[in-house]
Write a structure and sequence with these properties.
single chain; alpha/beta; Rossmann fold; Dihydrodipicolinate Reductase, domain 2; 2 domains; five-stranded parallel sheet; globular
Length: 272
C-alpha cells in the first residue's frame, strides 16, 4: 500500500507560539507533517532560530509561504493576518489562524476560502467544550456568556486600556475592565481574547456572545468561565491556562495547533 504524502507546513511568525510549533515539526513529533518554511519579522533572530533546527528551512516573506507549503500556520501579530492568509487561500491552501479576532475585520478571507479550494482552520486553543458548543449550535442556543480573568501583566498594552486610560499597575484586588460583545472585545483586546471569538464563531456569533474581562492580581493563570444555555444542554466550563513565554497567551495554544495537525494525518480522529 502506498504511504500517504507528507503535509508540508510553514509557520508565519516566530514568537513564543511559532517557535514551539516549528521546533516540534522539525523534531518530527507530528507524523505525516514536515516543517517546510518559516517567516519572522526580525531577519537576524529568524536566522538564529533556523540555525537551531535539525533540518534548516527557508526563511521567506509572509506572502510567499504558501509557495512552500500545503498548510500555513499564522502565529503573527493580528495586523498581518490578511498578508499571511490571503495569498495562501488564493493558492488553495489551508491556513491555521491563531489571530482569530482579526478574522472579524477581514470577512474577505472567508469569502476567498468559500470561492476557492482553500480552507481556514481555527484550533480549539485555550477553550474546552468547543465541540459541544458546535453541536449545540445545530439546535438552538439561547445565550453564551464568558468571563475572562487574567493577571494584570497579561493585559498591559491592550488598546482598550490605552483608549480608556485605565492603569492596571499595582492592583490589589480584581478590577472589571470590560463588559460587552465578543466583537467589541476582539477590537479592544486583540492579543488576549481570541478564545472569545472562537467561542462566538462556534455558537451564536460575535454580536450575541457576551464577555467580561477582569484584571486579577490574585491569579497566576489565564482563567475563563463559560456558560452556554441551549435546547440540548446547559454547559458550564472553567479553564485555567498556564501562560506561555508570552503572558498574553497560554501554553496550550501551541499544543492545540499540534493536535489539529495530528487530526489531519491520523487514521482515527477523536472529536467533531
Amino acid at each position: 500500500m502506498a504511504s500517504k504524502m507528507e503535509i508540508r507546513v510553514a509557520v508565519a511568525g516566530l514568537g513564543a507560539i511559532g517557535k514551539v510549533i516549528a521546533a516540534k515539526l522539525d523534531r518530527q513529533e507530528v507524523k505525516g507533517c514536515t516543517l517546510s518554511a518559516v517567516s519572522g519579522r526580525d531577519t537576524r533572530k529568524s536566522e538564529d532560530f533556523v540555525a537551531t533546527l535539525t533540518t534548516p528551512v527557508p526563511i521567506v516573506p509572509l506572502d510567499q509561504l504558501s509557495e512552500y507549503a500545503d498548510v500555513v500556520i499564522e502565529c503573527a501579530p493580528p495586523a498581518l493576518l490578511a498578508e499571511v492568509a490571503g495569498p495562501a487561500l488564493r493558492a488553495g491552501k489551508k491556513v491555521i489562524v491563531l489571530s482569530i479576532g482579526a478574522l472579524l475585520d477581514h470577512p474577505e478571507l472567508v469569502e476567498l476560502a468559500a470561492d476557492g479550494q482553500g480552507q481556514i482552520l481555527l484550533p480549539t486553543g485555550a477553550l474546552i467544550g468547543l465541540d459541544a458548543v458546535t453541536a449545540a449550535a445545530e439546535g438552538h442556543i439561547e445565550s453564551v456568556k464568558m468571563v475572562s480573568r487574567k493577571p494584570p501583566e497579561g493585559l498591559k498594552g491592550a488598546p482598550f486600556l490605552v483608549e480608556q486610560n485605565i492603569n492596571i499597575d499595582n492592583l490589589t484586588e480584581p478590577l472589571k475592565l470590560f463588559s460587552g460583545t465578543a466583537r467589541e472585545a476582539a477590537r479592544g483586546f486583540p492579543a488576549n481574547l481570541n478564545v472569545s471569538v472562537a467561542l462566538s464563531l462556534a455558537g451564536i456569533g460575535p454580536d450575541r456572545t457576551l464577555l467580561e474581562v477582569w484584571a486579577d492580581p490574585g491569579i497566576v493563570r489565564n482563567t475563563h468561565h463559560i456558560e452556554v444555555v441551549s435546547d440540548s444542554a446547559l454547559l458550564h466550563m472553567t479553564i485555567e491556562n498556564i501562560p506561555s513565554e508570552n503572558p498574553k497567551t497560554g501554553r496550550i495554544t501551541a499544543q492545540s495547533v499540534i493536535a489539529l495537525l495530528r487530526k489531519m494525518t491520523t487514521p482515527m480522529r477523536v472529536g467533531t
